[in-house]
Design brief:
Elements: H1 3-26, H2 36-39, E1 42-45, E2 48-51, H3 52-55, E3 56-62, E4 65-70, H4 76-85, E5 93-94, E6 99-102, H5 108-145, H6 151-185
Antiparallel strand pairs: 1-2, 3-4, 4-6, 5-6
Helix pairs in contact: 1-5, 1-6, 5-6
Length: 186
Protein backbone atom coordinates (compact mmCIF):
# COMPACT_ATOMS: atom_id res chain seq x y z
CA UNK A 1 0.00 0.00 0.00
CA UNK A 2 1.34 3.38 -0.92
CA UNK A 3 1.40 6.29 1.50
CA UNK A 4 -0.95 8.43 -0.61
CA UNK A 5 -3.55 5.62 -0.61
CA UNK A 6 -3.12 5.13 3.14
CA UNK A 7 -3.54 8.85 3.86
CA UNK A 8 -6.61 8.97 1.57
CA UNK A 9 -8.14 6.02 3.46
CA UNK A 10 -7.41 7.67 6.81
CA UNK A 11 -8.98 10.93 5.62
CA UNK A 12 -12.09 9.04 4.47
CA UNK A 13 -12.40 7.49 7.95
CA UNK A 14 -11.97 10.90 9.61
CA UNK A 15 -14.71 12.30 7.36
CA UNK A 16 -17.00 9.50 8.55
CA UNK A 17 -16.23 10.49 12.16
CA UNK A 18 -17.24 14.08 11.34
CA UNK A 19 -20.49 12.89 9.72
CA UNK A 20 -21.30 10.73 12.76
CA UNK A 21 -20.76 13.73 15.05
CA UNK A 22 -22.98 15.93 12.87
CA UNK A 23 -25.67 13.24 12.84
CA UNK A 24 -25.64 13.04 16.65
CA UNK A 25 -25.85 16.83 16.87
CA UNK A 26 -28.84 16.92 14.53
CA UNK A 27 -30.76 14.51 16.76
CA UNK A 28 -30.58 16.91 19.71
CA UNK A 29 -33.61 19.12 20.15
CA UNK A 30 -32.61 22.78 20.06
CA UNK A 31 -35.93 24.59 20.44
CA UNK A 32 -36.29 24.88 16.68
CA UNK A 33 -38.34 22.33 14.72
CA UNK A 34 -36.18 20.05 12.61
CA UNK A 35 -37.42 16.92 10.77
CA UNK A 36 -34.29 15.04 11.88
CA UNK A 37 -35.67 15.14 15.44
CA UNK A 38 -38.26 12.50 14.52
CA UNK A 39 -36.96 10.78 11.36
CA UNK A 40 -35.23 8.04 13.34
CA UNK A 41 -38.24 7.15 15.53
CA UNK A 42 -39.29 3.55 14.94
CA UNK A 43 -43.01 2.93 14.48
CA UNK A 44 -44.65 -0.49 14.82
CA UNK A 45 -46.10 -0.73 11.31
CA UNK A 46 -47.95 -4.01 10.79
CA UNK A 47 -45.67 -5.74 13.28
CA UNK A 48 -42.41 -4.44 11.80
CA UNK A 49 -40.40 -1.60 13.35
CA UNK A 50 -40.25 0.99 10.57
CA UNK A 51 -38.56 4.41 10.52
CA UNK A 52 -41.01 7.29 10.70
CA UNK A 53 -39.39 8.98 7.70
CA UNK A 54 -40.39 5.92 5.61
CA UNK A 55 -44.03 6.08 6.74
CA UNK A 56 -44.80 9.79 6.51
CA UNK A 57 -43.85 13.17 5.17
CA UNK A 58 -42.41 15.45 7.81
CA UNK A 59 -42.86 19.17 7.28
CA UNK A 60 -41.89 22.34 9.13
CA UNK A 61 -44.62 24.94 8.56
CA UNK A 62 -43.28 27.19 11.36
CA UNK A 63 -40.01 27.53 13.26
CA UNK A 64 -41.42 25.66 16.27
CA UNK A 65 -43.79 23.16 14.64
CA UNK A 66 -43.46 19.83 12.86
CA UNK A 67 -46.30 18.32 10.85
CA UNK A 68 -46.29 14.58 10.24
CA UNK A 69 -48.57 13.24 7.49
CA UNK A 70 -48.56 9.42 7.31
CA UNK A 71 -48.92 7.95 3.81
CA UNK A 72 -51.27 5.37 5.31
CA UNK A 73 -53.87 7.16 7.51
CA UNK A 74 -54.51 3.93 9.46
CA UNK A 75 -50.97 4.16 10.89
CA UNK A 76 -51.70 7.51 12.59
CA UNK A 77 -52.31 5.90 16.00
CA UNK A 78 -49.09 3.88 15.87
CA UNK A 79 -47.10 6.97 14.82
CA UNK A 80 -48.56 8.92 17.74
CA UNK A 81 -47.77 6.06 20.14
CA UNK A 82 -44.15 5.85 18.90
CA UNK A 83 -43.66 9.60 19.38
CA UNK A 84 -45.04 9.40 22.92
CA UNK A 85 -42.70 6.50 23.73
CA UNK A 86 -39.65 8.24 22.27
CA UNK A 87 -37.42 10.41 24.46
CA UNK A 88 -38.44 13.48 22.48
CA UNK A 89 -40.44 14.96 25.36
CA UNK A 90 -43.09 16.49 23.09
CA UNK A 91 -46.77 15.52 23.22
CA UNK A 92 -48.19 14.96 19.72
CA UNK A 93 -51.46 16.60 18.67
CA UNK A 94 -53.47 14.16 16.53
CA UNK A 95 -56.36 15.65 14.54
CA UNK A 96 -57.27 12.42 12.75
CA UNK A 97 -55.38 13.27 9.55
CA UNK A 98 -52.01 14.61 10.63
CA UNK A 99 -49.91 14.89 13.77
CA UNK A 100 -48.59 18.23 14.93
CA UNK A 101 -45.61 18.56 17.23
CA UNK A 102 -45.17 21.96 18.84
CA UNK A 103 -41.57 22.33 19.98
CA UNK A 104 -41.51 24.23 23.28
CA UNK A 105 -38.81 26.82 23.89
CA UNK A 106 -35.85 25.51 25.88
CA UNK A 107 -35.55 26.38 29.55
CA UNK A 108 -32.20 27.77 30.68
CA UNK A 109 -31.56 24.55 32.62
CA UNK A 110 -32.32 22.33 29.61
CA UNK A 111 -30.18 24.55 27.40
CA UNK A 112 -27.22 24.10 29.77
CA UNK A 113 -27.81 20.31 29.79
CA UNK A 114 -27.84 20.23 25.99
CA UNK A 115 -24.64 22.28 25.77
CA UNK A 116 -22.93 19.76 28.07
CA UNK A 117 -24.22 16.91 25.89
CA UNK A 118 -23.01 18.64 22.73
CA UNK A 119 -19.54 19.11 24.22
CA UNK A 120 -19.46 15.42 25.18
CA UNK A 121 -20.48 14.38 21.65
CA UNK A 122 -17.79 16.65 20.19
CA UNK A 123 -15.17 15.15 22.51
CA UNK A 124 -16.23 11.65 21.41
CA UNK A 125 -15.77 12.77 17.80
CA UNK A 126 -12.28 14.03 18.58
CA UNK A 127 -11.43 10.74 20.30
CA UNK A 128 -12.58 8.90 17.15
CA UNK A 129 -10.29 11.04 15.02
CA UNK A 130 -7.35 10.48 17.37
CA UNK A 131 -8.03 6.73 17.31
CA UNK A 132 -7.96 6.82 13.51
CA UNK A 133 -4.66 8.73 13.71
CA UNK A 134 -3.21 6.08 16.05
CA UNK A 135 -4.21 3.32 13.62
CA UNK A 136 -2.68 5.29 10.76
CA UNK A 137 0.59 5.69 12.66
CA UNK A 138 0.71 1.93 13.24
CA UNK A 139 0.14 1.32 9.52
CA UNK A 140 2.93 3.75 8.63
CA UNK A 141 5.35 2.10 11.10
CA UNK A 142 4.48 -1.32 9.68
CA UNK A 143 5.25 -0.10 6.16
CA UNK A 144 8.66 1.06 7.35
CA UNK A 145 9.31 -2.23 9.20
CA UNK A 146 8.50 -4.15 6.02
CA UNK A 147 10.97 -1.88 4.20
CA UNK A 148 8.18 -0.68 1.87
CA UNK A 149 8.96 2.95 2.72
CA UNK A 150 12.07 4.78 3.91
CA UNK A 151 12.48 6.43 7.30
CA UNK A 152 12.15 9.85 5.66
CA UNK A 153 8.89 8.76 4.04
CA UNK A 154 7.68 7.57 7.44
CA UNK A 155 8.34 10.97 9.03
CA UNK A 156 6.76 12.76 6.09
CA UNK A 157 3.67 10.54 6.29
CA UNK A 158 3.38 11.04 10.06
CA UNK A 159 3.59 14.79 9.53
CA UNK A 160 0.81 14.60 6.92
CA UNK A 161 -1.22 12.48 9.31
CA UNK A 162 -0.84 15.03 12.11
CA UNK A 163 -1.87 17.91 9.82
CA UNK A 164 -4.93 15.91 8.78
CA UNK A 165 -5.79 15.19 12.42
CA UNK A 166 -5.48 18.87 13.36
CA UNK A 167 -7.67 19.83 10.39
CA UNK A 168 -10.45 17.41 11.40
CA UNK A 169 -10.27 18.33 15.10
CA UNK A 170 -10.71 21.96 14.01
CA UNK A 171 -13.78 20.92 11.95
CA UNK A 172 -15.34 19.36 15.04
CA UNK A 173 -14.60 22.53 17.04
CA UNK A 174 -16.34 24.57 14.32
CA UNK A 175 -19.50 22.44 14.26
CA UNK A 176 -19.50 22.46 18.08
CA UNK A 177 -19.41 26.28 18.09
CA UNK A 178 -22.29 26.39 15.57
CA UNK A 179 -24.41 24.00 17.65
CA UNK A 180 -23.72 25.88 20.88
CA UNK A 181 -24.69 29.13 19.16
CA UNK A 182 -27.91 27.51 17.89
CA UNK A 183 -28.75 26.27 21.40
CA UNK A 184 -28.15 29.68 22.97
CA UNK A 185 -30.18 31.40 20.24
CA UNK A 186 -33.61 29.98 21.09
Amino acid sequence: MRIAELIAEIEKNMEKAIEATKREFSELRSGRANPKMVEGIRVNYYGAPTLLKELATIGVPEARMLVISPYDPSSLGEVEKAILQSDLGITPINDGKIIRLVVPPLSEERRDELIKMVKKIAEEGKVSIRTIRRGGREDIKNLEKKKEISEDDKYSAEEQLQKLTDQYIKKIDTILEEKEKELKEF
